[in-house]
Amino acid sequence: MQPTRLIIAITGASGVAYGKRLLEVLQKKKIETHLIVSKTAEKIIEHELEIARSDIEKLADHVYSVDDLTAPISSGSFKTDAMIIIPCSMKTLAGIAHGYAENLILRTADVMLKEKRKLILVPRETPVNIIHLRNMLELAKQGVTIIPAMPAYYHKPKDIGDVVDYIVGKVLDYLEIEHTLFKRWT
Fold it and tell me: 104: pLDDT confidence band, cut at 50, 70 and 90?
């Protein structure tokens, strides 16, 4: 069954294009989105995409400040189908792994864990060190889905957009949302 309400967080890792593209696809599919953008992600959006944070926010149905720990999404009583952190910085990943819910992104992820709801992290860091790997392993043991931004090339991407679509498509696959963002292996 296709999700109807998703929480999207964009954190301060390179690859904010993944978050933007996911929001574009979800908007076209009329899936309700709740967005949180970290302060560092705001700077990366300006640098990598050369657009303002407000341009990303226009793609979401609801937008929250990363500092607003009273937002509805910070409560387990707020019903949602999943949360996707795309891209997910190693700082955010570590905060989730160690229960350090200092901001709305971390608190909402913590709620997803305690409520046993889908939590998807798209880390975009390389190389990774042993601490990163341990944190990912700990989260995987808790049921978190880790979809690293590791594109495939069998579909013969022609540009960066095709590479971004592949990763976003993998997230959509996990959420069981139909798409044609990349050609499947035959």
Answer: very high
